[in-house]
Design brief:
Blueprint lengths: L3 H5 L1 E7 L5 E2 L15 E7 L17 H5 L11 H7 L8 E6 L5 H12 L6 E5 L4 H11 L6 E5 L3 H11 L4 E4 L16 H18 L3 E6 L12 H4 L2 E6 L6 E9 L7 E7 L2 E4 L3 H5 L10 E8 L2 E13 L7 E4 L3 H15 L6 E7 L11 H13 L7 E3 L2 E2 L5 E2 L4 H10 L4 E5 L11 E5 L2 H5 L4
Parallel strand pairs: 4-8, 4-9, 5-6, 5-7, 7-8, 13-17, 15-16, 17-20, 20-21
Antiparallel strand pairs: 1-2, 1-3, 9-10, 10-11, 11-12, 13-14, 14-16, 18-19
Helix pairs in contact: 6-7, 10-11
Amino acid sequence: MATELQRAAPRLHYICSECGAEAPKWQGRCPACAAWNSLSEDVVRLTARRPGPPTVAATTTPMEAVMAAPARVQATGSFEVDRVLGGGIVPGSVVLLGGDPGIGKSTIALQVSHSCGDEVSPALYCTGEESLEQLALRARRLGCTGARVRLLVESDVDTVIATIEAERPSLVVVDSVQTLRDAATPGPPGSVSQVRAAVLRMSEIAKATGVPVLLVGHVTKEGAIAGPRTLEHLVDVVLYLEGERLGEHRMLRGIKNRFGATGEVGLLTMERDGMRDLAAPSRGMLDAASLGASGSVLTITCDGLRPMAVEVQALAVASPFEFPRRTASGFELNRLHLMLAVLAKRAGIAVSKLDVFVNVAGGIRLADPGTDLAVVLAIAGSAGDRAISRHCAVIGELGLGGEVRRVSRTEVRLAEAAAVGMEAVILPESFRGAVPDGLRVHRVRNLIEAVALLG
Ligand code: TYD
Ligand code: MG
């Protein structure tokens, strides 16, 4: 039988960075989600149950008592960020902000802390990545100077927590979770066990003091916030900042939200002096000069709940190579290959000797299948030097048989098409809903009918 001492000793076990499942021994593949090579070491301390008086029952709270005191949310100073958060930052909540390096996480975090803090109770910006001088440079650039934010260069969790208790800031930013170090947990900073422990500690202090915490996290190439997807379980809100780094547009996507709708998307632009809300989103993306030319097609994507007019551009030219090149920016390359195969097989358009380039204007990434038809028509248009009217939008998903399928939230997309000044729209035949006045409709059943509409 194990002694008390043995039971209290640390024991190694393994945690999956994809799904958070735990395993007693290392395996090449996670037994829960079947991801390869995702298990990494973690240490648990089994605390032996101490002998003592029997546990006393807890006092429960009647539902009405909590209903009477709705949580006051703090506005972040950005309508788009508030929208994704579900109104603003909830007291005592923990928000995780992820994104690729250089995308603008620190920029948003500093702007948000500047909005949330005031002279009486400033926000606290902790960084383990940058020096005070670097922070000052960014603050000057963003115009976030003054007494509303206090700075701390620190990576020790205990020190950060003690500072929060002493100063009771209006908001704490930790930039980034990967640099936090918990002395009681083994492993180097940034390891799964360290990051988990640090996030848990930050979450405890947020709940205990009511101070909201904004954690910045780096995303690995695979898309998970460095190592642990497991973090998503430990926090209240998970946001990802996305976009092409060199483009100006950014999307802030709500992946999880205990206080609002997930799937919300905030649209921002990265300017020289910081992140701004994108005014009249669709219009910001449209380039009047190129629409109406062959290879350029306007579509309405619906990312999350939000419709947005986006221009898809394609260039299909005779290839000098034996194996033609295909590149896609803002569109998944595998999906492009699939679209080309459908185009060849179902519409008889020869693409096997063409280099094909697809670009989504404005640095937007199209993940929505409702934009398939627009991509295919842009390619077919470029290949055959035929264009679609600049006042016509294209909506539809494409099946492998060349059939044009219905897409989600078509009504919302149509309203957006009308709002950005479109006069006509190419739609799946099966759509039965209402069409806004003044919008001419071309219903198509399949790719052949759609290609026939190219001028
Ligand atoms: P940053 O917020 O440091 O990104 P992250 O914390 O996600 O790594 O911003 C990185 C880039 O943004 C940097 O290359 C410069 C650019 N930038 C602007 O374009 N405008 C600005 O106002 C600021 C502060 C940065
Ligand atoms: Mg940063």
